[in-house]
Amino acid sequence: MLFVAPSGGAGTLERQERRFALALFAPAFLLLLITTTAPLVFLAWNSLQKLDMSMPWLSGFAGLDNYTKMGGDPRFWSSLWLTFIYTASTVVLQVVIGLSLALLVLRIPKGQGLLRVAAILPIVLAPVVVGLFWRTLVLSPDVGLVDLVTRTLGLGSHNWLGDPQLALISVIAIHTWQWTPFAFLVLLATLATLPPDVYEAARLDRASAWQRFRFITLPLIRPAVVMVVILRTMTALSAFAAIFAATGGGPGTSTEILNLYAYRTSFTELNIGYGSSLAMVLLAITVFVSWLLFRRRKART
Amino acid sequence: MNRRLPRAVALYAVAGLLVSVWAFPVLWALLTSFKTERDVLAYPPLLVFTPTLANYRDVLWGPASILPNLWSSMVVSVGATVLTMLFAVPAAYALARLRYPGKRASGFYVLATQMLPPVGLIIPYYLVLQRVGGLDTYSGLVAIYLTFSLPFAIWLMVSYFEDLPYEMEEAALLDRAGRLRALWYVILPQVRGGIAVTTVFVFLNAWNEFMFAVVLGGNKVRPVTVAMFNFISVEQTQWARLAAGAMVAMAPVIIVGLLAQRHIVKGLTVGAVKGGGRR
């Protein structure tokens, strides 16, 4: 109970609180309804339409045609596969690298501040600027930073964004570069709050470093790790600007994750109906994945 | 002791590598922004060169000036931030502190609105704004920016409200101060820090946004993230100007990021640590 009335009419107070709460919450609720839920309904409706801006005279209700069309669309399956690779690899890399670095840095007595400053830089930059930086200064053949290193080491020059395989690796590297600091900072802050006496006890019991990590640290930071995984997965699923700036989804469709495919279909090829249905599939995937992750979090805590 | 020394050296080596990997591309861009286009393409790269401010002059006052774009970004970001905070703070207070029917469901609703991928939002926005003449307008962009900033701000503010002790509200209520007055005079001053951090976050997110800006903007409303492509065309990339433009465009977020560094880390963790513990 938040508040026990000193005398008379607990019911009145409760009603008063309820009215106050609704007055405070209703404006934001209505705004969200108008700005997010109404567009969603419209999107769902459009996904059932034939709506091609380059052939507007053919517009009309199409039922589930847009969805059945996906089955025989190799570009859709490829984008789905790329979404999976991109999301899984960036999230795993971020958590593994971020956690290892946090564990390392925790032991550094001095200079943690400088590290945190460096880590903030990629996070605050606009993803589109990050994409452009990498496309030009870092990954350009011959003059880019990476090519400077590979040329000096005698590994030769590579067209990092022009080769289909290398381009996929490159966009994964870009995303991992930008967002690993997030995992690192969150996990570092979480590790710093762990009680030292547990470790003392474990040390007295002659637990090895691995045992201490596996049986003390990991269970304690599990909620934070799962939260990082959830947040990072959501970001990766809707990644756009950095890939758009670096490769535009290319060469060909080799870095075209579902998000980019839906965008290109709608705004480059102007097939809004099919683009809407692709966006609906991406929404379904997002909901399904977050449901999986949230369920996991509940089960373990 | 002598087993410890190499270990410390290794630790610092890894830390140093880390700093350079994260900071280097940004520092490299900073360096490039002071080079002439010819010096940029020199091999091996020039670490010593005659610095020039010509690129900054070009991107600010030249024919490809990004000043109008900075203005667009400012208007859209401030507009979105003010609206977001006005709606988010009261809603977050209700969600964090008050009892009302459907509270859990409404909290979940706010969370769920964030799941809609941006590409799924932009298609309906484009169609509607096109019909009502809202493309290339500030209000159109502000409206769609609310879709990501409002849920985010509500949840971040909830975590700050939850940190407050209950006694304070009870005392204020026993004084018969009235709920609104208690909220305004007693509770809000206590979460000033949280409001500041949330405001900064919302502003930075709006400033950095790209996808909505590139589709819903135009010649009149063209935020600075979109203007970065001025310096890249099929024929040639204007390296030094791009670097200078990016430095100017990102100056606000870099400065705020470094100044508010501690708060950003706290802001990131509030959700992570707390969210994991409860709910």
Task: Please give a quick description of this structure.
The complex is a heterodimer of chains A (301) and B (279). By secondary structure, chain A is mostly helical.
Element layout with pairings:
The complex is a heterodimer of chains A (301) and B (279).
Chain A: H1 10-46, E1 49-50, E2 60-61, H2 65-71, H3 74-105, H4 112-124, H5 127-138, H6 145-152, H7 164-192, H8 196-204, H9 209-237, H10 241-246, H11 258-267, H12 272-300
Antiparallel strand pairs in A: 1-2
Helix pairs in contact in A: 3-7, 3-9, 3-11, 4-7, 7-9, 9-12, 11-12
Chain B: H1 4-32, H2 37-40, H3 54-61, H4 67-97, H5 103-113, H6 118-132, H7 138-162, H8 166-174, H9 179-190, H10 192-208, H11 211-216, H12 224-227, H13 239-259, H14 261-277
Helix pairs in contact in B: 3-13, 4-7, 4-10, 7-10, 7-14, 8-9, 10-13
Word description of this protein:
- The complex is a heterodimer of chains A (301) and B (279).
- By secondary structure, chain A is mostly helical.
- Chain A has two domains: 10-61, no CATH class; 71-300, MetI-like (MetI-like fold), CATH 1.10.3720.
- Helices cover 73% and strands 1% of the residues of chain A.
- Chain A contains twelve helices and two strands; from the N terminus they run αββααααααααααα.
- Chain A has helices at residues 10-46, 65-71, 74-105, 112-124, 127-138, 145-152, 164-192, 196-204, 209-237, 241-246, 258-267, 272-300, and strands at residues 49-50, 60-61.
- A two-stranded antiparallel sheet of chain A has the order 1-2.
- By secondary structure, chain B is mainly α.
- Chain B has one domain: Orthogonal Bundle (MetI-like fold).
- Helices cover 75% and strands 0% of the residues of chain B.
- Chain B contains 14 helices and no strands.
- Chain B has helices at residues 4-32, 37-40, 54-61, 67-97, 103-113, 118-132, 138-162, 166-174, 179-190, 192-208, 211-216, 224-227, 239-259, 261-277.
- In chain B, helix 3 (54-61) packs across helix 13 (239-259) and helix 4 runs parallel beside helix 7.
- The relative contact order of chain B is 0.13.
- Mean pLDDT of chain B is 85; it is low at 271-279.
- Chains A and B meet through helix 1, helix 3, helix 4, helix 5 and helix 7 of A and helix 1, helix 4, helix 5, helix 6 and helix 7 of B.
